[in-house]
């Protein structure tokens, strides 16, 4: 069977640590092209990973008749533009989050994907983390009764410490990023919590330190009465990834320790579950996002990221 041919638009951090290695480890995909405005960088990356074609012209990849799969790993403001072009050239598209910077563009992307019968998927990788999947199973099995409240933190020192361009990263350019920590971090937790509780948010209040935020706190409520908060920051070098889910019979805590879930029941029972990570061939964690995308394209899996969660998450960070 011939391999699916994939191309990547953008060669920044997320492309380098996730999309490139996770495409390359699959036997049924050939990563044939990569694009970036920084031609020198993208040529070096292509040479390192034996990618046959590198360019600084995205149209050469988006319009190529040979390429079937596209990953969009550009600054946020360009996500929907390039995703739409790819869809209109009959490509299945994986778009880093957020898929769009406004609801009109998001709606157009989904409409176009349906029109052409193509897979359109956002990079909400937290759903595929083995720890989060175990938490989902616990919730679905009523391990702590019904969920009534939550708190979730996602805090780290900021893009200047991990992005390829450091202090000059597009994350700090509002014209390119559209959002700060809300678009980088909060959108992950918004999607994760909605998936875990299988509900969307009906009310919310967003407090942020400035228009182009480096830290923010969101208070949320679902129609059924689940309430909670999400706190994100680019200002915490010590990091904080702790999430607590409060149920009618106990609590679930994760993110406090790597690969662990703690279940504390009101009857005094406490259980620590250690979760085996899924590793790539290079020994680093496999996000699962590329695998799910490819399997959806092949028809062996159904797309598990609900568009109503995607829309709801974007509505919140646009507030």
Automatic annotation (TrEMBL):
Pfam family, one: GFO_IDH_MocA
Gene3D superfamilies per the UniProt record, alphabetical: Dihydrodipicolinate Reductase, domain 2 (3.30.360.10), NAD(P)-binding Rossmann-like Domain (3.40.50.720)
Domain Gfo/Idh/MocA-like oxidoreductase N-terminal: 5-124
Domain GFO/IDH/MocA-like oxidoreductase span(s) in chain numbering: 132-253
Single Gene Ontology MF annotation: nucleotide binding
Protein name in the entry: Gfo/Idh/MocA family oxidoreductase
Origin species: Oceanobacillus profundus
